[in-house]
Design a protein that fits this description.
CATH topology of the largest domain in chain B: FAD/NAD(P)-binding domain
Number of helices of chain B: 24
Distance between the termini of chain A: 12 Å
Shape of chain B: elongated
Radius of gyration of chain A: 16 Å
Number of strands of chain A: 4
Number of domains of chain A: 1
CATH class of the largest domain in chain B: Alpha Beta
Radius of gyration of chain B: 33 Å
Number of domains of chain B: 5
CATH class of chain A: Alpha Beta
Structural class of chain A: alpha+beta
Distance between the termini of chain B: 37 Å
Helix content of chain A: 10-25%
Strand content of chain B: 15-25%
Shape of chain A: elongated
Largest sheet of chain B: 5 strands, parallel
Structural class of chain B: alpha/beta
Oligomer: heterodimer
CATH architecture of the largest domain in chain B: 3-Layer(bba) Sandwich
Order of helices and strands of chain A: EHEEHEH
Bound molecules: flavin-adenine dinucleotide, iron/sulfur cluster
Number of helices of chain A: 3
CATH topology of chain A: Alpha-Beta Plaits
Number of strands of chain B: 38
Amino acid sequence: MKFWRLPLDAGSHSIPIGELHIIKDRCKGCGFCIEFCPNQVLKEAPEFNKKGYHPPLVTKQGECVNCNLCEIICPEFAIYSVLKEYKELTAEDIAGYSKK
Amino acid sequence: MTPKKVQRKEKEEPRIGVYVCHCGLNIGGVVDCARVAEFAAGLPGVILSKDNLYTCSEPGQELIKADIKEHRLNRVVVASCTPRLHEPTFRAACEDAGLNPYLFEMANIREHCSWVHLHDKEAATEKAKDLVRMAVARSKLLAAQEPLEVPVTRKALVIGGGVAGIQAALDLADSGYKVYLIEKDPSIGGRMAQIDKTFPTMDCSICILAPKMSEAGRHPNIELLTLSEIEGVEGYVGNFTVQVRKKARFVTDSCTACGDCVKVCPQVAPDEFNAGLSMRRAIYMSFAQAVPSTYQIDMDLCLNKHGIIACDKCFQACQRQCVDYSQQDQILTLDVGTIIVATGVDVYDPTPLTEFGYRKFPNVITSLEFERLINAGGPSGGNLIRPSDQKIPKTVAFLQCIGSRSKRSNIYCSNICCMNTIKDALLIKEHWPETKILVFYIDIRAFGKGFEDLFQRARREGVSFIRGVPGEIIEDPETNSLTLIGEDTLLSQLYRYEVDMAILSVGIEPRKDSPVIQRLLNLSCAADGFFLEAHPKLRPVDTPTGGIFLAGCAEGPKDIKDSVTQASAAASRANILMAQGKVIVEAITAVVDETLCQGCGMCVKVCPYSTIREDPETKIAQVTQASCAGCGTCVAECPFSAITQRHFTDAQIFAQIDAITEEAPETKAVAFCCNWCSYAGADFAGVSRMQYPTPIRIIRTMCSGRISTEFIEYAFRRGAAAVLVSGCHIGDCHYINANHQTEKRVNRVWKKMERLGLDKNRLQLAWISAAEGNLFARKMKEIDEIIQGVTPEEIEKTKQILVPKKKGKGEGTEPKE
Ligand SMILES: Cc1cc2nc3c(=O)[nH]c(=O)nc-3n(C[C@H](O)[C@H](O)[C@H](O)COP(=O)(O)OP(=O)(O)OC[C@H]3O[C@@H](n4cnc5c(N)ncnc54)[C@H](O)[C@@H]3O)c2cc1C
Ligand code: SF4
Ligand code: SF4
Ligand code: SF4
Ligand code: SF4
């Protein structure tokens, strides 16, 4: 059955939200961060940077969970995330889980 | 197993002995047995023919045995009662005297003759002669057969680790067999692990289940495979090969369930075990008493996707280093002799019944959510709280039959929800005696042992029972309290009740994935979606497929006690097979003549047991003898006559038709009856002494699916006035659904007759069950009227124009004489 109700203990859980910083002109377009982000937060930007590559672009603002994977794998130190806030769970999040 | 070649025995001259039984006055009082015996003596191949008082008595059997030896009889025909009664007796006598039992044949002159024609001795005697003529003709073509002995692997597979599966596995393991217990979830336990107390005894559910779970977990004979599902099944009774996917758990067996990893995991999702009323992490154990007591990672939720490690927090937290992100699914191949299906039930989702506001109003919950709320180990610590404000409700309503007994959801009664509600009401009264409880019902079904007591106790404790389920629930958006509107059908009065919380007493239904299990194991499902038993009364835990049994709610809604009872029954049935170590397959199986098979694949499509496969290279059909049930449907379907059913060959059936139509065919009807229903129905008409006209001559086959269009047309070509094809009712076929083919074939002949301008009414199709003797007798009268109405010109025309279509080689096994 698909779940819909906000769990009774939802208040004691929260989701970390990362704020992404992209230093566009350092990026050499390897695409690792785009490919490996577990939440598929990034995609290729349409425009070129100074070096002539497509840097990453944040598409799903608020879905970065600040795991820092992109920061670790980026060979050019072009992306990093910092913890912005802890978000409270909502009924939409719950419906989203059930879809997975 | 390679299919045996059709037995073509070297021709030996038939030496037939015929015994016509008086059965006291039962036959002798109507049929002139001496005249029948005399008639038989004159039939070609008959060496001796006798009539005696009781052929089935000791002296009667001794006489047959002595004659076999003295006169070197190689065929024996007994004309007496139904073969469904004494065929085994006479077969044994033949075997005793060294004659292969498959060389014995019977003519049923009691149930099908003397008992149903009590007042027409002359016609009854003539009919008896015909029946003996048919039996003699068939007996000449009989061949000695050896039944197949198939070894049974002494290992069992149990699918589903609910209380039924656990019980079945324990019973078999205790009997000394190796058991594989397959559970798709991370832990065994099933629904029973989720519920708080159990009716009618009000035991703590997990307290009585947990010891059984751990016993199953550590039993030396049980191999527990959790997170596992079957992906393929091959083989047949006693010899199944099963492919199982054991999904990666990502936590090794060394896990001590300390829970250190959970605290650090950043990923959360609703907890399935608590019906979504609490959260769990990506690394978790489904519940405290889980067996195996090992954590697992939900990889859909974990940050580590596609083998890329984005997070290793749990790995770092685990002192015993049990976390292994690189684990892979394993595919296991298991050889087992028997399989028990105990896949249980899903709980009805009431969302589609929008009038109750489930998913809109937070204080409308299901009975499953209730179980988790009232459970001390649950998300609210056992406090029944309203989800909207987490306060204890003062007025609670239960709505019965939600998702049951209605055309809008499931039409059956879910069996457990009445008692479950009574249990729940008592639990509320126990903790919060002041709570006002209203139960809205259609009728309360408290039918089991101790159930009525519990119902009366609930009434004594002040629970109100109101007949009439609300038509609508509306919510006050301020307070989130609910108003129930409906009609009290006892008082014929409309009602409005204000309650703090409403509990939908939801029904149970077949698992969403049961079609997968059905396909893999070749099971059948009833109209309601639950797996079908081989016989609803007498083989309630067997399936139509040999070696596969049913236990628990997979077979139909039931409570724990019935699930456990059925599980032990299924284990005992499996035990019988494995203890014997072998099964005997009667020698009535289908055999393919490889030289005639053209690889068209028609037989593969119609076999109800999926037991025919095409050789991947030659395309030649191959029948697995051990799993062939012997319905003969494939034989009737093969356009090239490349398949023979042992003991029910085309030649034998044609010979019977010839015998019927040898004299005055225009006065007779040829009837084809299946052994299990319509032949038995004719027997029942006899036992009940229902009188009907004499023209009918019955040819017995195991299944109506054996009747090819050729038999029907041949009977007409031989001048028969009418033909009856009859079998079990659609849905009741003894061979799953072979009678669907019967229906198609009769339709085909009807169309052809119509096209040729023939009277298609002369071909009748009737579904007659073993209990419908009256229906059989009625049908006989109808057919008699049909025969009266057929003109000689019509019969002559039919003989001329109902010719077989020219088909491939091998066609026309029709007798040459
Ligand atoms: C809300 C509620 C309250 C109830 N209260 C009571 C009560 O008080 N008293 C009472 O007697 N009965 C009660 N029942 C009924 C009781 O739960 C059932 O009778 C019992 O659980 C049936 O057991 P089972 O093993 O047949 O099925 P289940 O408990 O459903 O177990 C089936 C198991 O098979 C597994 N499985 C399913 N499909 C597969 C597959 N393809 N491969 C591998 N594994 C699979 C499932 O994961 C599950 O573990 C209640 C039921 C409900 C829903
Ligand atoms: S920190 Fe993690 S979730 Fe956020 S963008 Fe980078 S890889 Fe994706
Ligand atoms: S690796 Fe996965 S399961 Fe382990 S803590 Fe991180 S997100 Fe949770
Ligand atoms: S058990 Fe009771 S509530 Fe459940 S479907 Fe049957 S009658 Fe309705
Ligand atoms: S159709 Fe019937 S007779 Fe033919 S192989 Fe299948 S079970 Fe056997």
